[in-house]
Every structure is written in C-alpha cells, then in structure tokens.
Design goal:
disordered N terminus, 2 domains, 6-stranded mixed β-sheet, Immunoglobulin-like, mainly beta, 5-stranded antiparallel β-sheet, about 30% strand, about 425 residues, Sulfite Oxidase, Chain A, domain 2
Length: about 425
C-alpha cells in the first residue's frame, strides 16, 4: 500500500497490551525471536544450465564521461527525502525527512541527510564568508575559509537529531510511517576544526562562561552554549562524508554539537560571541523549550537521550509472509555509547538481547539486528536501548507521566510496530 494512502486520515487507537494479546493465537506460541522453531522447506529451482545473458550483458555501456559526479541507479530513484506538507509553514520554515527504511549501515548519504530550515536555504559564497569570534576574548578574530582550513583537522562520526523528531506522537500515534515519525535524524562523518582550537587561538577571558553561536541565514539563527561543552567535543566543520558540506547542511561552514539537539549545531556559521551568561534568544525561550503539565517550561534541554527504532519491518517495509527474517534497527544516545538493545515481539512482555554491529561509537548511530521466525500471527515489535550511563529508553506512558501531553520536543519513547497477519505494519501506542 503506498505511504500516502496510509497517511490519509490515519490515527491509530491506543492499544492495551493485554487486549492485544487476546487477539488471535497467543503470541508466546505464535512468534519466535531468534533462530528457533520449525523451518519451512525452501522451494528450489533445478539448475540444468547457466541462465541466459540479460540485455545489459550483451552490449557496451556508457563510459566515465557519462557521470562526472556519481548518482544512484535509476531504480533507486524513489529513495529520497520527503516532507509532510501540513508540517511546512513555507519556504522559510521547512523540514524534510531521511528515508531510514531504505538506508544501510550508520552513515547517511549526503543527499539523504534530513533538512531543517528557519529562513530557507541561503546561497553562501565561500570566498566572502567569514567567521567572527569576539566578546570576552583576548584577541578577537575574523577568519576566512582559507584561514579555518589551515588549522589542524579532525574527523568524527556523530548523529544530528532534531528535538522535534517524533514530536507528533506525544498525544497519539499519528503518521503511519518510519520516515515521517523518525526521519529527522541522520549520521555522518564530519571533518573540521575543534572549536576548542579556535577558542585557544583567540584566548578566553577568565569570566567567559557561555558562547552565542550564530548562522548566516536570513533568520540569523542563534543559540547559547555553555563554555564547558564548547571546549569538550564541539566541531567547526567544512566537510561531510568526505566532501564539502552541501548547501542544505550549512555550506561552507557549520557547527556540530555532538549528542545535543540539532538546532544548536548552527549551519552557515558566521559568528561566535563569548559572554558570561546565556543570551535567551527566541529559539531558547518561545521555541525549543518543553511545556510541562503545570504550565512551566523546561529550558536548555539540549541532550538527546537514548533512543532506538526498528527499521525493518516497518510500515514502508511490510513482511511478505511467514518465515525467517532479520529484525533490523538503529539506536543512539547523546550520553555516549549504546551498550545494549533488547527486542520484543509481544509489546514488552518478553525481551531478547539483539546483536550490536561495529562500529559502536559515542554519540553516533549504532546498528542492531536479531533473527526472527514469524509464523503469521499478530505481533507487537519494540526495541529498547540502554546507554553507557545506564539510562533505559522509556515507554510513552512513562514520558507522559513525567511531562504530560503538551510537549513537542524530546520524545525518545519506545516505538511499537503492530504486525498484522497479512504482514502489514502499523504505528500504534500501548497503554
């Protein structure tokens, strides 16, 4: 079924774990996690001779000049970023979602990395772009791109996630789609200069405690960052996955703040001002705060807490019939490394440990898999991650108990996929 038709008017009801378990056969007998249970026979085709050459094996194809810059195969043309029209206020405030269901490994291709704009995408001339560092510093500087590239370079793999990723799910299951529910996260290898290196170059005054970072877009998007984080692991980057940043990712220069909400990783970085207190900008007062049940708001909630999601099966990738499958997914944490992922096929009643695939890196996506033999009975698939601090991914009920229903940001709750007997997969929430 096309994604668009699934999305139209869809709003799945809240399902109780016990009521679901009463549907059809008991899940404990119907679904086996791991390589267990009877193995159905495989249909085999006798081989009497090699297969005939296909048309593409009978002629000479185009040469290297046909594609001076590589692009995906034509048959992969449908694997693209997508947007939800009613979520986009206009060009100035727009979002696109990465197709997690079609990606492999932990690195997001540059052309599929999710987008988020606050004033559209500026067209920046790298020859004229400059970075100013001033405020409570000993030696204020204005740096050109050539100046920045001269500094010692580092490369690190980190995810960037919008804090509104999954935000539509706070009240109920909304969009029956992995891409639209979780696609505002992507992961890349970033190359640039440590922010601490640049701050050492300008010299910090003793009363400097905060940095205001600002972009060159039409909104002059800016955020306040504590100096400790700036000196820890922040990067000023000019390259992504081995090539120059793309315009939608901040070309020619952006900030990467590992493990923290994506809006602080300012794109088209043009200014860093050091001060003794936060600036309380629009994006940290009226926006990017968490409205609590008592009417107060949490501010400066930068951290992306541990989260995971099953990427196969999912609404875009249903099952084709009973048999052996590999459950696949991604896990991540702004606290550091993922240490454990458990998978359940019965809505959290029973869990089994998944395999984590190397590399397992701090503040980066981590792949997990688990063999699963499905016999065609209903199932409720979930994943639950634990990070190196011991933090355990919560359920949506646990989050609502703490924070109510009015939040938009930082929904890191366990995702439940309902698998129906025909193999279709739906976004549901369990009470």
């Amino acid at each position: 079924m096309p994604v668009a038709s699934r999305l139209a008017g869809l709003r799945n009801p809240l399902l109780g774990r016990r009521s679901f378990l009463r549907l059809g056969a008991a899940l404990s007998g119907g679904v086996a996690l791991g390589p267990f249970g009877p193995r159905p026979g495989c249909a085999e085709t006798p081989i009497s001779s090699p297969p005939a050459d296909a048309p593409w094996s009978q002629s000479i194809g185009p040469g290297v000049v046909d594609r001076p810059y590589g692009r995906p195969a034509d048959t992969e043309a449908g694997i693209i970023r997508r947007n939800v029209p009613w979520l986009t206020a206009g060009t100035e405030s727009s979002i696109s979602f990465s197709p997690l269901q079609d990606l492999h490994g932990i690195i997001t291709p540059n052309g599929l990395f999710f987008e988020r704009y606050h004033a559209g995408r500026p067209d920046v001339d790298p020859e004229k772009h400059k970075l100013m560092i001033h405020g409570l510093v000993e030696r204020p500087l204005i740096l050109t791109m050539k100046d920045i590239i001269r500094f010692p370079a580092v490369s690190r793999i980190h995810f960037i996630e919008c804090p509104a990723n999954g935000g539509m799910e706070w009240r109920a299951a909304q969009l029956n789609s992995l891409q639209f529910n979780h696609g505002m996260i992507s992961c890349a290898e970033w190359t640039g200069v440590r922010l601490s290196t640049l701050l050492e170059e300008v010299g910090l005054k003793k009363d400097a405690r905060w940095a205001m970072v600002e972009g060159a877009d039409g909104a002059h998007m800016n955020r306040s960052l504590p100096l400790d984080k700036c000196l820890d692991d922040c990067l000023v980057v000019y390259a992504q996955n081995g090539e120059a940043l793309r315009p939608e990712q901040g070309y020619p220069l952006r900030l990467v703040v590992p493990g923290w909400e994506g809006n602080v990783s300012i794109k088209w970085l043009r200014r860093i001002k050091l001060g003794d207190r936060p600036w309380y900008s629009r994006e940290e007062t009226s926006k990017y705060t968490d409205l609590m049940p008592d009417g107060t708001s949490r501010g400066f909630t930068w951290l992306i807490e541990a989260k995971s999601v099953i990427t196969f099966p999912c609404p875009e990738k249903p099952l084709s019939g009973p048999g052996l499958y590999e459950i696949r997914g991604l896990a991540w944490s702004g606290n550091g490394k993922v240490t454990q992922v458990d998978v359940s096929a019965n809505g959290g009643v029973n869990w089994q440990r998944a395999r984590l695939h190397d590399p397992v890196l701090p503040k980066a996506l981590t792949r997990f898999t688990l063999p699963w033999r499905w016999d065609g009975q209903p199932a409720l698939l979930e994943s639950r991650v634990v990070d190196e601090t011991g933090y355990v991914q919560p359920t949506i009920t646990q989050l609502r108990t703490q924070r109510g229903l009015n939040s938009v940001y930082h929904n890191n709750s366990i995702q439940t996929w309902q698998v129906k007997p025909d193999g279709s997969v739906f976004d549901v929430q369990l009470s």
